[in-house]
Protein: Arginase/deacetylase
Organism: Auriscalpium vulgare
Amino acid sequence: MKSIIVSLALTTAVLRAAAHHPHVDEHSTLHPDQQLFNSKPPAPGSETWLEKYGPQADLVYTGPLSFSHLEYARCLEDEAAAFDIAVLGMPFDTAVTYRPGTRFGPTGIRVGSRRQHGARAYTLSWGMNPYEQGTKIIDCGDVPVNPFDNALALEQMEVAYSTLLRRDVARNGSEALTGDMRAFAFDKKEHPKIVTLGGDHTIVLPILRALHKVYGPISVIHFDAHLDTWSPGAISPSAQARITHGSFFFIANEEGLVANNSVHAGIRCKMIGPADISNDESVGFKVISTDDLDDIGIPEVIRRIRKRIGDSPVYLSLDIDVVDPGLAPATGTPEAGGWTTREVKRIIRGLAGLNFVGADIVEVAPAYDHADITSIAAADLVHDFLSMMMSLEPPKSRDERSPWVDEL
């Protein structure tokens, strides 16, 4: 009992101390939690907040919402906003076939990222901090897509992506950290990379249209439970109705936007039959199923993806439903039996060094979440995307970097 009372007293003292120092300097290199307990003591007799406590800065759970507390700018209108990598939200969800709600995905992923911070972003898995690699990363906000007119919304997303893609990189022409992408661009210039927060998976069609203007046809690494290459067929009542989150890759192939060496990872959906796979191959994809991971292991999954993509410019698109719904329930078309978050993260690390031109994470629908677990997983995967884009090769294992030594 005595130890419990002492513990409570110490906890109360710490909380009281925190209450007297609730400011965090947004320009500090310290993590907000560290700043909380490293604040200057209040000046005696001060009357204003600034005099007594210092700047009104944000804690990890307060302040304006941006991804991982990054600098925020309305980049579509602010042409002075400089970046090498932009985080961009596309809150579009009016082309789904089952549960809607992914228009709240960009906000949900940002909420899931609040415990992330540039001053504390080093991970054992990557062996580095993606925000300390000389690359300017900012949150460019959301595209204000029209929620009533899908044709207009798709055009708005394409224009928004193209607007950011045409910007000069902030590094002023210094060598790209993931290799020289200028060789793939029509204008032989380096272009910014964009990590997009969806939104339903249809957002990839306007993204591919925008990327095609710069790079031509590109390969796609597609993490998903579903193929998304289904033909809309003759049953679509209109041209716009042909474009859904299950047919956008078929449309992209019709428009010549994707290369024929693309690959799916994590497929496990129900299909009409083998004809779906034949159609999928005609669109330019090859399938790695969820079960393949059990049969061939993560290293072979990585090898097959890398071999398939080769040196092509490549776009990574990740539907959160590739993860088992027990770990990521907040999605529109959940499928049982998916990969774990850890397995997906391991595969992404193995893809570092490929010629990535962009990435997205889609189909996060926070209304179906529990304790933000899907949003937290999605935000962590975005951290992996950023680290992947900073790496010339997959990170070595911890044992390779620092061999284990038995000291006894």
